[in-house]
Design goal:
Length: 492
């Protein structure tokens, strides 16, 4: 029998993962990637000995990684050389107060009680809820597909309405545990990892802060790009072929099937199965015949974007921990500005990453490699945002915030700077609206309500990645890769 051939469009985490499962299942798999190397948003660059992870910087939900590496026939710990980051974050508030989120419960209790008396008991109850949400969400929502309405709308799932609090907003739910707004922020800011505002995110997402405290935040030797290198090695070992610097221009279809892809250089590649890892709304808009779905997708809610600064610095800033978060007092206004007005908040919360604190290889000796990430609205339809101005404003906000930690001279010690705005995210990875996390993860866009992993008309065309089920994040896109591969292999 002829071996089935698969073309994968895009070498992001989801694409590489699916490709590996399919190749291990005996299919002939070719991955076509527009950029020069694999990883997609999970990207890296090295300049003058400074190594920057330009996308993910946090290895969270390690148990999910472990399960997915296991499904690929290997061990995460053996492959990645992981160290636990503890304290995970240093939080700095507008009034100068600080909180180190740590798994050392004695230290955490002391810090919390200074901020709000009795709050540690609140944290313990919140962790219990997070644990319940984690177990249920992974089993009932993440680790399974929703192909038919009955997979989602059934009696068993009805109970989840009460047990997972999907109809309560995460931030409002915090009143059950804390009074102090700093603590409410400290245990909800993780929603931004899904590009969500805690004022819109379901309370289900309390599982994120829970996993950070219970399972830890980790860091691979050499940085997060190590995950991509490992997955690419596994793919090559399984027999996957990669074609880089080659953009797909069109998916060739007849009335019922996808037949292959047309590359920008005119080459046509035929395939029995086409799998799109490029951002799903982009694929409908740009690679397929227009059928109304592209427009419908544009009307959906997209997650926010970020402006990222990458600085090679000629001295070391020990005041900076690996992960420092500056959380603004006007927390609600921050999210409204980003999500509703598609703007830069007047006083943005922001994140600074200093990887050399975890691995000295990330910068030359005596120097520092710093990344600052400022969340901002995604690109608007009318294109009226002035990204140069917004970038300059965001840059000044970072310097202003760093002064609260006594860092006053950073600007004069920057050797070089790279900046990524939403325009860059859009151009480099074909992310619609420059939205860094793709389709938003609000209740009406999750599980059965997320676009299907299989095209409704061309049944041999599948989708994988952040804008598909279960959603954004490295481990979840690995899950999406496995689920899609299982489906393709089952239908062989
Ligand atoms: C700034 C930032 C920070 C993040 N932080 C974290 C974090 O700390 N932890 C975490 O777990 N996750 C994080 N994420 C999310 C995580 O990076 C993504 O969810 C995940 O990498 C998405 O993978 P994907 O499979 O959707 O593929 P993508 O990364 O979208 O890759 C798709 C690939 O398709 C290629 N492509 C597009 N169009 C074409 C075409 N026409 N032809 C050929 N190739 C094409 C693109 O170049 C790209 O390589 C972060 C993301 C960003 C942007």
């Amino acid at each position: 029998m002829k071996t089935k051939s698969v073309i994968v469009i895009g070498a992001g985490i989801g694409g590489i993962t699916t490709a590996t499962h399919l190749a291990k299942g005996g299919l002939h798999v070719t991955v076509v990637e527009k950029n020069s190397h694999p990883g997609g948003r999970c990207d890296r660059f090295n300049r003058e000995g400074h190594i920057f992870d330009t996308g993910p910087t946090l290895l969270v939900i390690p148990l999910l990684y472990e399960a997915e590496f296991h499904a690929l026939g290997t061990s995460m710990h053996e492959r990645l050389g992981l160290q636990r980051v503890d304290p995970t974050y240093h939080l700095v508030f507008d009034d100068g107060s600080q909180l180190a989120l740590t798994s050392d419960m004695k230290s955490l209790k002391e810090q919390l009680e200074v901020i709000e008396r009795g709050s540690f008991q609140g944290l313990l109850r919140y962790i219990q809820e997070g644990d319940r949400h984690y177990q249920l969400a992974i089993e009932k929502l993440v680790n399974r597909g929703f192909d038919k309405a009955s997979d989602f709308f059934n009696f068993q799932n009805l109970a989840l309405l009460f047990r997972l609090k999907p109809l309560i907003h995460h931030y409002s739910n915090m009143s059950a545990y804390f009074d102090d707004p700093r603590l409410k922020a400290a245990f909800t800011f993780q929603d931004t990892y899904m590009g969500l505002s805690p004022f819109e995110a379901p309370a289900t997402f309390s599982f994120m802060p829970y996993t950070e405290l219970a399972q830890g935040v980790w860091y691979p030797k050499g940085g997060m790009y190590g995950v991509v290198e490992t997955l690419t090695d596994l793919a090559r070992e399984a027999g996957v072929e990669f074609i880089f610097n080659s953009a797909v221009e069109r998916i060739e279809v007849n009335s019922k099937h996808a037949q292959g892809v047309l590359l920008a250089d005119g080459l046509q590649l035929d395939a029995d199965v086409v799998l799109a890892n490029a951002d799903l709304p982009y694929v409908y808009q740009n690679l397929l015949p227009q059928d109304g779905m592209a427009k419908a997708l544009l009307r959906k809610q997209f997650s926010c974007s970020v402006i990222s600064f990458f600085w090679g610095v000629d001295k070391t800033y020990e005041a900076l921990s690996p992960h420092t978060l500056f959380l603004a007092d006007d927390y609600r206004a921050n999210f409204e500005s980003i999500m509703r007005d598609l703007d830069l908040p007047a006083n943005p919360s922001l994140y600074v990453h200093a990887p050399a604190r975890l691995d000295s290889c990330m910068s030359p000796p005596g120097q520092d490699t710093l990344t600052a990430i400022v969340p901002i609205g995604h690109m608007s339809e009318n294109g009226e945002q002035n990204w140069d101005e917004l970038r300059d404003e965001a840059r000044q906000h970072v310097f202003r915030r760093l002064r609260t930690l006594g860092i006053t001279d950073l600007e004069s010690h920057i050797k070089f700077e790279e900046t990524y705005t939403p325009l860059y995210w859009h151009k480099r990875y074909n992310l619609v609206k420059g939205s860094t996390h793709g389709l938003s993860h609000t209740l009406t866009q999750l599980a059965y309500f997320r676009p299907s992993n299989r095209h409704p008309r061309y049944h041999n065309l599948y989708f994988v990645g952040a804008s598909t089920h279960p959603g954004t994040g490295i481990p979840t896109t690995m899950v999406s890769g496995r689920l899609v591969a299982e489906r393709i292999l089952a239908e062989r």
